[in-house]
Amino acid sequence: MTSPRPSVPAGFTPTGTISTPTDRRRVVFATVVGTTVEWYDFFIYAQAAGLVFAAVFFEPAGPGIALILSFLTVGLSFLFRPLGAFLAGHFGDKYGRRVVLMVTLILMGVSTTLVGLLPTYAAIGIAAPILLIFLRILQGISAGGEWGGAVLMAVEHAPKNRRGLFGASPQIGVPIGLLLASGMMAIMALIAPGDAFIEWGWRVPFLFSVVLIFVGYYIRKRVEESPVFVELAERREETKTPIVQLFRKHWALVIIAAFVFAGNNAAGYMSTGGYIQNYATNPAGPIGLDRGPVLWAVAGASVGWLIFTWLSGWLSDIIGRRTTYIIGWIALAIGAVALFPLVNTGEIGLLFLGLLILTVGLGFTYGPQAALYAELFPASVRFSGVSISYAIGAILGGAFAPTIATALVQATGTTWSVAIYLVGMAGLGLIATLLLRDRRGIPLGPDNEAEQAVSPIYGVSRS
After folding, report:
1. Burial tier of 245 (Cβ tally within 10 Å: 0-12, 13-18, 19+)
2. Distance between the two ends of the chain, CA-based, in angstroms?
3. Who has greater pLDDT, 163 or 79?
């Protein structure tokens, strides 16, 4: 049986780019909106895990263990990201980027909405956390498939000298998603303060996801297929077993690329994973700040993350992906060291400053990632390569970062242990970056598979 092949849309050039600025802007807008919707859903869960789920779904375990269990459900979904990446990579390399993006968007939105409808442990017992975990797994599968498709739609449509900037468009959807998630939680903390937030206020941001599904679906439906995939399909050159080919020829590259993301993701999940929110608002903790101001501080810091993500994508087109990353790793280590001394003052303004400083390194090690990953892998296995590298990096980095941070503080009694952990992860990211050649501007189309197959790893001639 032959796979369905997309027709060549009007406006595509033989070089694999869109010929009109209008079409390019449409792709950028669609990737930003789609990624924002996906990650709003993902971050709403992480925020609720730090603020609500320990009491609502895991209370019988006791306060300390319930919080760890709540954060474990955040990390559990990361274990299923590779499954989403495998499925999305396989079907994305065979049938196209666009169809995968539509499916992942719907899966994420439906899962998130259903979380908002779940009964509590008090209502249905052990079935409540089991259903919660199941829906979080579906979110993980969706997130694992979403990112690769979004970044390839952006980068493969871009002019070769602006891939970093175009690739930053789906990347900035992540801090925008965090901004919306934190903002919605903060608004509900005002509308339903105290016990009302625990009883029903937290559910509203989850239920709001159903609206975002329709918005994201409508926008993504209007975007044409990636020109690189169209060329592959027209020539009947799509790989029949992209996952097998990826690991047979590029396994070392997948591992190194995964560590590049892991260093960023561990630090990022201090805020996006709900740890700072819980640490700063826990009444039994050392600070005990009000929930609303902390959520607004996280929302404000996400604006900084957005700005530095966009700036670094643009800068990577000028000074290269590798150099931009090196600057980012240094900034990230500084941010990790500065974060907790500022948070521990108990002053909301200094907490915001600590998060804002951290976003400099977060942005500079996130903005260039889409272009970097797309330029690492040959066209025939690119969706599989970027998706699986991203998913594995998420497991190594952010999956259990809030859990590890909680356990470290409980074991050592000091947040310096968390800072050391984050600096160590940034160091691993720096080492992985130094192992890779900068391939800025390499042709991405199927005509250049031979050039793309030359290994980007220093000291290795072929992948």
Report:
1. middle
2. 31
3. 163
